[in-house]
């Protein structure tokens, strides 16, 4: 399966290419500023006068004197510089310089503005505002120079009542290091310009018109690449062309910095800085208006071509490109990078995305072509897993949909499109999959396939399961929030399969009202040429040739309090899901077709349900329709009483499952379900009167219900009145031993928390439970299907009442709650339920930050039936269950639980085991489980372990053996290789029940760092978090 993190890669790549090529072009064009770089940019600006005072403010500040005697001030938080009509804003600000020694003398300060914390640097002048990552300016004024910091961020000067900015060195701060490098670079460029005056270009005739200066100002400067190594610069003039062409050749390392570069990001024009570094460079251009070849201006009409060679590095923000050779023709918007690599940061994975290509060419302003390119998040030069294409094209395409660009608020006229030819997915150097043509919008480009699994089993044969993204495969432009995948499967023993999977989370409308829609759908068809194997006694069931599933589940939120759930789920035959989607069959919700409207108001909720069965092999009830009204916890007479109610009315139709056509698929209809239809109505109310009796919380209650059924199993109408009265309560105990210590058991203080609770009630019903039709389903399809088989296999076709699930639910009180959906499950009862719950807790962790930990947990519950013959098969005590956990240490726990009934044939189920978890190294569990229920007896020894053998390998093993039957129950083994970008799983399994041996190979994307915080590693090692 391919990582979802690749889905936004193309848009990032387009932005990166555009920034490094197009932005470089616009940078060179717009940075042709006449004249040498000004050393007093504010004083020479018409929006600032030299006499204008300078005001600087921030939230925090510190100052110190550098060893060379320079005074440095570091300001943080909401930094603002104001002078005249110009205003600067930044996250951090570093100032170098000193105040004027005499009144009237100019104060000169070098200021470095940094916006790396996310706010950027904002420059504001009348009618204009721009934003860049960082900048530097030289502040000059003959007026006041003031720095304002809040009083709470200042310290008192000893011996006076005045306060000042704290004196604290910050020379090691990263922002100060960057500021010093920028200041030194400026000083080096000035010195270099003076030293190379003899190499200045000869002046050429000028047309006499003033060179227009663009706003904002863009400046190109040529600097040394290495601090201690000056570049070698030579210049020449080619008089053979008109106008004359200047050629500047720089060797021995060159660094070209372009400030205030305009780039298009998300439809908005933003200013940034680019940094180009190479071993050698050649620049062809017309004569600049200045004789300084190290800092000159270029207007948009001046021809300019640049060639870079040797260890080329280009940076824009956190994006970076590298190449061995590069050429760019600025006027014609054409360029090429050779042996190129583009890197951009992806916050979703906290890592870098790389595009590597033999060459990247810019064909026009917005069209690009990469040859022999691959995309990866790996840091390796040529990773073991990658998506590679022979040719990748990025081009602007007209958008006829009339959509609004969210970045500009204007209609979108064009959008970047990515087209890839001969795309291949490689594992190491082995091509696993390829597509001849892939095309999709760049902002929503997806890797062609989302899942790819290979395997072999005795049931399915050799298998290939794959899911491909529809947008990438067919070039569709799906709405935002919609993800669609086409599924291709092939199983040598079963046949080919084709499917379409869709997930969506979109805003829209319903009946003219704004709504939010969220849901999923699955369409799948399989041409089956084999037989079903569902386990012992069902290993060769006849299966239809044409099989599949059509499922859609949707939730529409009309408001916070109103929503609609809708489902359609058609399955071709009774065994399809259990055979091909066993996990979903065991754990997912039932396959249903319904529409349900829900609305909440205060303490109440209203539901309107329409439901119909379309799968004849399932036991389900149609509701045509059904209405429910709930009111929970409504206070009466102040807080003296609490009233809860549930009323329901609807027309129901019980439809029992049809028998399977294969006689080997044993089937007996469930005795408590029969076909019936009619009006079903009920209203149930409960009053509680809670109060405190000393330390005991007590709540007497009464509950009454009236219910009616239009048709019971005899075809007659039926009515029932039910009522109960009782009292429930709880009492808590607590004892603390803060001084108790035991290093052997890791005890640092001990606290015992204990609670005793009870629920005593007496209930009467005018009808017995076996007379009541079961219109409301109380169990899932997978359990009903199992009961349809074990009744004839284990009980000879007649289900004893001790094993009737309705009587078990009655004894457990499953239908007594006011809001319980299966209100039928009540009868005459006299019951006392008791519970005793205990916690032994201690403190662990560092002394200054201890946390509370459960050292031991012991819970015990039981039920007393005074009328034992009627309510509990002749035994007064029943439904005894308990749970015990002893967390021996941070890594090891002893676990035990069980549930028992003491009547003949009652359940006796318990298990005990040891679990040890060693952090990021792995986990181990060994346990014993006994199941003794009537004719069913099983004694299983189970064991599993997960272990990280090295940084690259993890193994997991599970096994089970039945002592009672002396039979192996199955094993599974998985070995996982942890790669740079993917997890490669090699699995082996043996299912004794189905006599199935399976081998599987699957690929899973590695998401984020694979350390102790990784949820992937926790799942792989079986570690609970």
From TrEMBL:
Transmembrane regions: none
InterPro entries (UniProt xref): LptD (IPR050218)
Record keyword Kinase present: no
Gene: lptD
Protein name (database record): LPS-assembly protein LptD
Keywords associated with the record: Signal
Domain of life where this protein originates: Bacteria
Keyword Signal: yes
Source taxonomy: Bacteria, Pseudomonadati, Planctomycetota, Planctomycetia, Planctomycetales
Signal peptide interval: 1-27
CC per GO annotation: cell outer membrane; transporter complex
